[in-house]
Structures are given as structure tokens and as C-alpha cells.
Amino acid sequence: MTANCQRNNFEDDNCRLRPVDDFASFTGFSCACRDLDDYIQNDAERHDREMISRTYAFHLKDQGSLSPVVAFVSLANDAIRLANRKKERLFPDGLRYKAYPAVKVCRLGTRAAYQRQGIGSYVLWTLRFLFLSDNRTGCRFMTVDAYNDPPTLNFYQKNDFALLSENDAKEDTRSMYCDLLRFREQASAQCRSDTGN
Ligand SMILES: CC(C)(COP(=O)(O)OP(=O)(O)OC[C@H]1O[C@@H](n2cnc3c(N)ncnc32)[C@H](O)[C@@H]1OP(=O)(O)O)[C@@H](O)C(=O)NCCC(=O)NCCS
């Protein structure tokens, strides 16, 4: 019996995001961050193989042909705990659980020559889209442990992530989250316009 289970791909006229099947496509890739370059060159494949995270490659399209990989993102399942006042705001009618299901952006890097051109934001937008359509499990939030520096925090804040708490203000990374439900209408409208319904 053959089965078609491919539902992790995003493709539009401008770009393609897909799970990586050949890590050799990252040869020469650098996002000018030593830790992330080391991860994508030496560790990402093993994380995929051991099912710790899944790495996706992002390409731009130009008149139908694909660019080299311009960004990568590694994802894993996650759960977040919310302070009571956030629970009350987000779930006024109940559904107060200790933790809520999430997908974590474990690593994200844009090829150095392509940075500050909207690519990283586009990757996050396509991920929201993927995680708002046809999920296998509940997944309400997207999370990230963002490097605690102004450019990175600005990048995630511009992309609708908020700080989870002030407890990690002096740590190397800060926990941030984005509520996917806020984008559901937008994603369904996009799907409707793409299918002409
Ligand atoms: C963070 C990163 C993924 C952003 O990707 P990108 O493709 O440059 O992102 P976008 O162009 O969509 O967004 C850029 C915004 O992020 C912020 N930003 C990103 N890099 C910045 C830099 N070097 N200096 C200042 N602001 C920066 C700015 O707010 C910028 O908006 P602006 O250009 O309008 O000022 C990319 O810079 C990168 O790969 N950095 C190295 C790895 C890293 O730090 N990853 C984050 C791990 S948590």
C-alpha cells in the first residue's frame, strides 16, 4: 500500500518552504552567527534523524526557478505555561490548563546576504500558515527562545511575538510566544482566495 502524507510544504508564487531532505544543500550557507552556522552544518541532520527537531529550507522563486536555500528553520513540539492574568485574557470562558500546546522555533537563520529584506518574517508567516491548516494535534502558540539582543528581540516583536515574562530579562535568551489563533481568519481568507472559493 502507498500513502501520500505530504502536508508540510508551503509554496506560493514567491517562495517554497519544505522539510530538508538533503543537508548538502546547506554547504556554504552562513547566517553570520557562529552557533547557528555550526548547528546547520554539523548538528541539524542528527536532530532530524533522532526526531528532536525538523529542519525546513526556505527558497525564493524567480520566474519559476528556485534560489539556493536563503533561510532555514528548525521546529519542535513545545508547551507553555501562562500566568493567570494571561490565561484570563486569552481564555475568558475557561480552558484554564497548566500548559498549552505550542510549536517551538528552535533555530532560525537567514543567509547573510539576504538579511533585512523581509525573508525571516516571511518564513514566520509561512509557518503560521502551515500550523493553522490541517493540524494533527492542537497547537495554539508558537514559541521561541530568542537571543537576548535588541535586533533579535525587535525581529520577533515585529512578527507578533511577546515576551512570556520578565524573569529571564538577564538571561542569554528570552522566552517569547505568539498566539496563532489571532491569525486564523487571515489564513482561512488567504486559502479561500487561493482556491477561488
Ligand atoms: C534574526 C534573523 C533570522 C532575521 O532574519 P531577516 O531575514 O533579516 O529578517 P527580516 O528582514 O524579516 O526582519 C528584519 C528585522 O529584524 C530586526 N533585525 C534583524 N537583524 C538585524 C540587525 N542586524 N540589526 C538590527 N535589526 C535587525 C530589525 O527589526 C529588522 O527590521 P528592519 O530591517 O525594518 O529594521 C536574521 O537576522 C539572522 O539570521 N540572524 C542571525 C541568526 C539569529 O540571530 N537568529 C535568531 C535566533 S533566535
Can you summarize the main beta sheet? 9 strands, mixed
Total number of helices: 5
Q: Report the end-to-end length measured between terminal Cα atoms.
A: 33 Å
Number of domains: 1
Number of beta-strand segments: 9
Which ligands, by name, code or SMILES, are bound? coenzyme A
Class of secondary structure makeup: alpha+beta
Give your account of this protein's structure.
The chain is an alpha+beta fold. Helix content is 29%, strand content 28%. The protein has 5 helices and 9 strands, in the order E-E-H-E-E-E-H-E-H-E-H-E-E-H. Strands 1, 2, 3, 4, 5, 6, 7, 8 and 9 form a 9-stranded mixed sheet that branches. A hairpin with a 3-residue loop joins strand 1 (10-11) and strand 2. It is globular, with a radius of gyration of 17 Å. The protein binds coenzyme A.
